[in-house]
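Colleagues,

Please find the record for the two-part complex below.
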Amino acid sequence: MPEMPVLYLCWFFSVMLFLCGIYCMMLSRNMLRIAIGAALMFKACALAVIACGFASGNLAAAQEMGVAVIMIGVLSCSVIVALALAVRRVTGAMDIRNLDKLKD
Amino acid sequence: MNTGLFFCSLLLIFSLGAAMSGRMVMAALCLACSSVALAAQFLALHSPWAALAELLTGLAFAAFLFLCSRSPLAAETPATAEDEMRFFALPFLLGVLGLAFWLFSEPLARALLPAQTQQHGSTGMIFWLSRWGDCAGISGMLLAAALAVKTIAGRRHDA
């Protein structure tokens, strides 16, 4: 089964990438940095999906799901950046703690 | 295998750069480079459409971030005591996770592989799965140690 090492290699790097994203999201209050963390976590998910499809031989379905994960990730991150810009317009800074001030 | 290892390593290095870079402009550039590395890895996995989607969307998002981050208002704000607690929680959790991976990789590999596969002489597979678990665990603990050192050094610098 020659694909197995590739699968575990990709899984290992997916986990590490996901941890990078969690680190980036946890340790900052800047919304742009939170968007970067979310983008890294979505990249990890896409890599895991494609690697699973490659190892199981069902690459077409995995590729469709991977493209869907990539698109959902970019859309979500764009929404976060748009919120950051709105927060900056209202409060003058991109601090996540000022998010509730958008209600005013 | 070697191509995958190379591109995945590049991806991880650039992602670490994006996550840990102090300047937002550098973080956006590292994110763009990590998108290119991930697209190359997708190509290595015979997924050209996923590679194309990752390349286009990743580079567009990185360019968007780059433009947004050029404002001085996007600068970081100083950390509070609550943030310091989160700084200390992450290395601890990561270290415990790495230790668990390191200690329990072999029993986990034996439990995850089907019994039928194990009967047909899959000692090599269990061995390599366990080594992957060891690598993940030790890497997690090293990362935790690096984060702890960075946190303590940052606190001393602030003091």
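Chain B touches chain A through 57 residues (CB under 8 Å).

Comments are welcome before we finalize the supplementary table.
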